[in-house]
Amino acid sequence: MRAALLDEVGEVMRAVASEVIVPRFGALEHEDVEEKAPGELVTVADREAEQLLSEALLELLPGSRVVGEEQTAKQPGLLKLLEQGDVWLVDPLDGTANFVEGRPCFAVMVALLSAGQTVGAWLLDPITNRLSRAELGAGAYVDGTRLSTSAGSPGAAQLRGAVLQKYMPRELREQVEQRISRIEQALPGTRCAGAEYPAIVHATQDFAVFWRTLPWDHAPGALFLTEAGGVAARFDGTPYRAGDDVAGLVVARNQAVWDDAVKALLR
Fold first, then answer.
1. Beta partners for 160?
2. Domain coordinates of the chain in residue numbers?
3. Rounded Cα gap, residues 141 and 163, in angstroms
4. CA angle, 22 as apex, 19 and 26 as ends, to 5°?
């Protein structure tokens, strides 16, 4: 990936957020919000941001494709493109429910995949304008400062993490509920993957457990976390890959924490 691309993508994301997302925060009209699926909201900001991001990203990397959350809702077959060539994964507004409710916990996320492997990641907090980014093999940064996760684990009984049970099969959910007392605190989650991953890197929580793993929700954060020294792996320990059609993902600030969280809750 050419060096300038890291900066260019961030500039595009900030420009789009300032143009169509931030002005609508706390100012949405009734007709600006729709339910695209049961319990799944989409706003005019989501759609306009995805359109603008898609156009700009294709110009930055000729010959690439875009797989965006909102377009994929209409054309699910787009997910088959993830292993083919250069692909931009776009989540124009992660945490839409928070955005609609006026809660300042949402993000703009982009990942660049090459032959299915995530090679670039960008996560923007539009309210603070903080940009988290990573390049495969080159580390994780927040506004130019390189970050690294801490080593070691305090043990399962002292771990704090988001345990997101909403989409889990009933049997697994019941198992996890029975074991929750094995960790110090199960957090409710932020309803925004673009906030969960930075929280682990910044050590405000130790791990997170997800069941549903839509690629635009996790490819950017997974690369950012792993480049900082963290772990993103399926329940069986297989490293996360955006194109995998597999449910279940545990992300943690290092391997020791991942091992303790998985042993306590899932094995």
1. 185
2. 3-147, 156-265
3. 26
4. 135
Q: What is the pLDDT of residues 123-176, one digit of tens each?
A: 999 999 999 999 999 999 999 999 999 999 999 999 999 999 999 999 999 999
Q: Is 32 exposed, middle or buried (0-12, 13-18, 19+ CB in 10 A)?
A: middle
Distance of CA 224 to the CA centre of its chain: 9
Closest CA to 210 of 179, 256, 173, 184: 173
Task: State mean pLDDT over 233-246.
Answer: 96
18-to-57, 108, 111, 195 alpha-carbon distances in Å: 17, 11, 20, 19
Position 38 pLDDT exceeds 90: no
**pLDDT exceeds 90 at position 1:** no
Which residues are bridge partners to 162 per DSSP? Answer: 187, 208
Third-level CATH fold of 156-265 = D-Maltodextrin-Binding Protein; domain 2 (3.40.190)
What is the architecture of the domain spanning 3-147? 2-Layer Sandwich (3.30)
Q: What is the pLDDT at residue 39?
A: 86
In sequence order, the 6+-apart residues with CB closer than 8 A to the CB of 127 are 22, 25, 104, 106
Rg of the chain over Cα atoms, rounded to whole angstroms, equals 18
The predicted-structure confidence for 94-128, as pLDDT tens digits, reads as follows 999 999 999 999 999 999 999 999 999 999 999 99
CA 209, chain centre distance (Å) = 13
Please, are residues 177 and 116 in contact by the beta-carbon 8 Å criterion?
A: no
* 213 CB burial (10 A radius; 0-12, 13-18, 19+): buried
